[in-house]
From TrEMBL:
Domain called HTH merR-type: residue spans: 12-82
Pfam (any one): MerR_1
GO MF assignments: DNA binding; DNA-binding transcription factor activity
Organism: Sphingobacterium phlebotomi
Keywords: DNA-binding
Record PANTHER family: BLL5018 PROTEIN, REDOX-CYCLING DRUG-SENSING TRANSCRIPTIONAL ACTIVATOR SOXR
Signal peptide residue numbers: none
UniProt protein name: MerR family transcriptional regulator
Source organism phylogeny: Bacteria, Pseudomonadati, Bacteroidota, Sphingobacteriia, Sphingobacteriales
PROSITE patterns, per the entry: HTH_MERR_2 (PS50937)
Keyword DNA-binding attached: yes
Amino acid sequence: MPYKEREINKLYYTMGEVTAMFGVNASQIRFYEREFDIIQPKKNKKGNRLFTQDDIANLKIIFNLVKDKGYTLQGARDYIRSNKNEVKENQRVIDSLERLKKFLIEVRDSL
């Protein structure tokens, strides 16, 4: 059986890793943490924030609504509260399509 490399998923991401993922400053992540109650990173004894996969998924939802769709912060908050399951399903589909796009670009580049 051939060796298949598995993607390693971390349990916790530091603030630096999260800011690199989204290409924003740490202050913007902290601001969204205060504004949206769905982002609840754990804090270690030193007070450093540790983000889970759920926190990352919620940040993706917030960035999609605010940056891509142009919602205000209050509008995004209301939309998330009223359509929580729909929002998560939409983000899952968006993530799936982005992975497919990345794969297709890799295939095109290898030809």
